[in-house]
Automatic annotation (TrEMBL):
The keyword Membrane applies. Gene3D superfamilies: Aspartate Aminotransferase, domain 1 (3.90.1150.10), Type I PLP-dependent aspartate aminotransferase-like (Major domain) (3.40.640.10). This is Cystathionine gamma-synthase family protein. GO terms for molecular function: cysteine synthase activity; O-acetylhomoserine aminocarboxypropyltransferase activity; pyridoxal phosphate binding. One of its GO terms (cellular component) is cytoplasm.
Amino acid sequence: MIKLKGFTSNIVHHDRQQSYNDSPIHTPIYNSVPYGYKSTKDLENVFQGKTVGHSYARQATPTTDSLQSMITQTELGVGSLVFATGMAALSATFLTLLKSGDHLIASRFLFGNSYSLITTLENFGIEVTLVDATNVENVIAAKQDNTLMVFVETLANPGTQIADLAAIGDWCEQQGVVYFVDNTMTSPYLFQPIRVKASLVMNSLSKYFCGHGTVLGGAVTETGMYDWTDYPNIFDAYRKGDKSKWALTQIKKKALRDMGGSLSSDGAYQIAVGAETMALRMDRACANALALAQLLEAHDKVDTVYYPGLPSHPQHDRATHWFKLYGTILSFDLKAGYDCAQLLDSIDIIINATHLGDNRTLALPMASTIFYEMGPENRAKSGISEQMIRCSIGIEDTDDLLESFQHGLDELS
Ligand SMILES: *Cc1c(COP(=O)(O)O)cnc(C)c1O
């Protein structure tokens, strides 16, 4: 393996084979479900974990393996697993590492479906406390004797709150609590949660990794920072080998194999190709987002702008310290009396769609869509104003983006 310093250099050279003589530069799409062996003994050895090999595509294929190792490299981890969606990766992790009677501390500022998933965990007897994770003191105050895990997002959507990442990491390490970080909105290009001692890192591959809005995928990466020896929920069968990978083995067996939210080789291939330009896309989209945030903040029809690149953002300094750039998600509250839908319809460049991390600029009002089911009371608690619009900024040319927003806002009455 050649060793390169840069993020993109490592991704584009990731699939490089030992020899270039007639071998594919991309790991091919292996669409076979079963994998055959010359002798029964060979197959037995694979089943018993004595030799490394594939048996059935629900657990792994050479194509998903290749994507996994690329993700591990970008997150500086010790191993990764890929799933059919980001939600599959999250549910796999929660359901295999927590059980009835355990306590989870989670950020109050979560992706809407993650919030919904966490309320489901409560039905299975897992206690959950939601806290304002922008300040470690709130996490500390929520600690119980049965607390096993803290879950936060790096950069929350839609409010762009930034968790107290480093302080929570220090506290989790000191308490022996698992620190699970959703890195989707920053991606390993902007931030690697291992730097704040995360135990496990999740990425929705549907966002910046794939980048083109053409495939769903999710990943969990084990950073190697957590020693699982005393963690109560690791099954005996997986308490062997490298201790820093026990959780990953358990998630692979109990979630990927038993629950089956597996990524197809077709999907893995598309994500791997998309990831080659992740840094290039993000450089452009983050620059666009910053320029647009400045335009919006200066406009008299706009109330609050939520973008960590603005000095007015409550965690601007934290973002500047930890993140390479400020991200592509930008939200704003339209002043009371103006209609969000009317504005969105008059900004030509916007596509009315949910989703984040696309090459195109997408936007939607929050209270009437993603957070509709939550109701006004919980929306207020989660920092979702009734006039909030969320944008996922794309890679369009900056002038087109700025002109289109300026025109839409000026027209608004
Ligand atoms: C999109 C997203 C998810 C879920 O990922 P899917 O691939 O859509 O299932 C989880 N967390 C965050 C922060 C996301 O943005």
